[in-house]
């Protein structure tokens, strides 16, 4: 099988998660890492045993010509970095959520990669968690009867986690198209967050083409999740059907009530486990274009459009 060359730009905590995961998988050759901070580069070179380091993503991408250009940076750099990945000849550009800070920027990104024929992947890695997959399995089993409502909540604000919520909601509903969206925003304090500017709270409704209704609460006004002790992990998605419900909590497992009774299971955020499966699917897609990555950019764009139109 082919081995794919990878360049990672932006090696903060999440960037190092990606770099370590690529480095451990024999399907990939981590050929370089890039960051504006020299101290991070020194540490990364020592940990990853990578020789090619630098502060210019464009120069490194043009010199190394990676198959995969992966970047993990603040959201205000999305289009320019995707453009670097396209111009260096990468077959796939992988990056963190949110895919953009506006719908117009997301449109520009998708137009660029579609014209170039470049695959994109946006990191919604929680769907690889065993507890998320268990909830999806229960939904697909038919034990809930006819699905009618999906409720997703997070105490983190919109640009932190709302794209996650929409992505997993669409996944639970088999990626059915949304017919209409409406939302209410409240509070402007989090617009001061330079990395993740956002309203303090978003409440929204999504009506999907199959009749399923999605309800989202995201931010300071969202319901608390007392089972979880840290605000970043206070997220839950519950799927309700005519015969029962199934629910996943990002850091407190899953539970369900069906005709077979009450069932529960463990599960929590596990970057090492989730990222391993996430990057394996990158290789699988590059091997075979007929096996798109579950977090592919087209799907991420559909979710981002829902989020953006509801909040516009």
Keywords:
2 domains, 6-stranded parallel beta sheet, Rossmann fold, alpha/beta, 9 helices, globular, 312 residues, 14 strands, 8-stranded mixed beta sheet, Dihydrodipicolinate Reductase, domain 2
Structure description:
This protein folds into two domains: 4-125 and 272-296, NAD(P)-binding Rossmann-like Domain (Rossmann fold); 130-269, Dihydrodipicolinate Reductase, domain 2, CATH 3.30.360.10. The chain has nine helices and 14 strands. It has helices at 13-24, 38-48, 57-64, 78-87, 103-116, 130-141, 158-172, 271-287, 297-311, and strands at residues 4-9, 28-34, 53-54, 68-71, 92-96, 119-123, 147-154, 178-186, 201-208, 213-219, 235-241, 245-249, 253-258, 261-265. The strands form two sheets. Strands 8-9-10-7-11-12-13-14 form an eight-stranded mixed β-sheet, with helices on one face. A six-stranded parallel β-sheet has the order 3-2-1-4-5-6, sandwiched between helices. The radius of gyration is 19 Å and the shape is globular.
